[in-house]
Design a protein that fits this description.
With about 130 residues, this protein is of the alpha/beta class. The protein has 2 domains: about 5-65, Signal recognition particle alu RNA binding heterodimer, srp9/1, CATH 3.30.720.100; about 80-130, Signal recognition particle alu RNA binding heterodimer, srp9/1 (2-Layer Sandwich). Helices cover about 15% and strands about 40% of the residues. It contains 2 helices and 8 strands. The strands form 2 sheets. The chain has a 4-stranded mixed sheet, with helices on one face. A 4-stranded mixed sheet has the order 5-8-7-6, covered by helices on one side. Pfam families: 3-dmu-9_3-mt. This is PhnB-like domain-containing protein. It comes from Tardiphaga robiniae.
Amino acid sequence: MVQSIKTFLMFEGRAEEAMNFYVSLFGDAAITQLTRYGAGEPGPEGSIHQAHFTIKGQSFMCIDSPAKHGFTFTPSMSLFVDCDNAAEVDRLFAGLSEGGQVMMPLDAYPFSPRFAWVTDKFGVSWQLYLPQS
């Protein structure tokens, strides 16, 4: 087996909603594997036991945790997205910031002509970056 590293996102009942949302925002994204909890299993029947999806060639996993926990995502770990153009930054910003929180407003910065840092409605932190020309 080839060793790999994936970003793992743990939700409490919103994994499918989040995964579908992310896949809908990116043109190069797909759900590649999905298993659900069945009757009598630890999680609520039909919730996500484990799912795999890709965005821009990067692999992600997500689950609906059957165990309640006292923590969630933190902005100290964020998904850094290299965008192809300003329109992509703007589109992703509009989608990811809706219902979320803007941590750095969409603007030009010394390190990028178009950049924003947002936490989406699921609590996942995203940095949207356009490289200097």
